[in-house]
Design brief:
This protein is α+β, with helices and mostly antiparallel strands. It contains three helices and four strands.
Amino acid sequence: MRLRALAHSRTGDKGNTSNISVIAFDPANYERLRRHVTPERVKAHFADVVKGKVVRYELPKIGALNFVMSDALGGGVTRTLALDAHGKSLSSALLDLEIPDEETA
């Protein structure tokens, strides 16, 4: 199943750093997200985009994860020729991440 079945997402940026929040639609799914949406998986998912490290911050009380990705925006908004300089489409791309169905988790 795709991550988008369990969560929504939002992005932000600062210089050449992008952050993506993943927020569970149902807080009961937070642990499942925490287990399967790891910094390593996010880094691998964005291997062609994110050149730096990926750090995950956990926000269990609101059922969310926040990923801060360094060296992720081609130099930053004022330095890149990328069509999506702010990285807003990264949230949609992350929601395509495949996670195991509940039975196989």
